Amino acid sequence: xxxxxxxxxxxxxxxxxxxxxxxxxxxxxxxxxxxxxxxxxxxxxxxxxxxxxxxxxxxxxxxxxxxxxxxxxxxxxxxxxxxxxxxxxxxxxxxxxxxxxxxxxxxxxxxxxxxxxxxxxxxxxxxxxxxxxxxxxxxxxxxxxxxxxxxxxxxxxxxxxxxxxxxxxxxxxxxxxxxxxxxxxxxxxxxxxxxxxxxxxxxxxxxxxxxxxxxxxxxxxxxxxxxxxxxxxxxxxxxxxxxxxxxxxxxxxxxxx
Length: 257
Fold this sequence. Notes:
By secondary structure, this protein is an alpha+beta fold. It has a single domain (2-253), classed as DD-peptidase/beta-lactamase superfamily (Beta-lactamase, 3-Layer(aba) Sandwich). It contains 9 helices and 9 strands. The chain has helices spanning 2-8, 47-58, 69-72, 89-98, 102-111, 115-129, 152-163, 166-172, 238-253; strands spanning 20-27, 30-35, 64-66, 86-88, 176-180, 186-190, 202-210, 214-223, 226-235. The strands form 3 sheets. A 5-stranded antiparallel β-sheet has the order 2-1-9-8-7, sandwiched between helices. The chain has a two-stranded antiparallel ribbon with strand order 3-4. A hairpin with a 3-residue loop joins strand 7 and strand 8 (214-223). The longest helix is centred in the C-terminal third of the chain and has 16 residues, at 238-253. The chain is globular, with a radius of gyration of 17 Å. 51% of the residues are buried.
């Protein structure tokens, strides 16, 4: 597990100085490059990885959700849900992880017993169980808020937990997905992760952006049996630097045949 390697890793050189406020590059459990990995920073929609993990344990995929008025009015990235629409939990999770849709996120939060407040409590409980000491959530979607923070190291571990769930691991690797509401409304979900379909071996995981958090990314790439995980928080040039980090990690890890 990469998270085990992360816990034991020694400080890595800041090879990509200035690329992000914090970053982490791990190859097969070994930290190769890093900077400010324990800094508490706003995670933007990377938050939704934990939301998906908690939802996975609370609701059956085929359970029907009726879109709430609040969800229908959610700002930022959206699927385009309207109040009263009926969708499966699995389809809303897909919208939340692929499209980073806040309307899907709040539809799920309002559906769960106890609503948003109880969902956030469960997310924080899960963070404590995972010993994520730099992580605390105030909302499930990643909106900027006092006390909403995580770190590159913690987010790497959250990503590993998500990837350990087969259904979620398959989902975040999809470039596109079409879902249809119970009412017959079709939604075409395009993955916001530009690595998928462009960088060979890309398998996920999640993007994020807010004014405070800047551009954020957790990415996983697999090639020839080697897995590279990267985390970027408040990245200067998210896609360019991610590609450079991934290439450097594989160059450092792959052995000549």
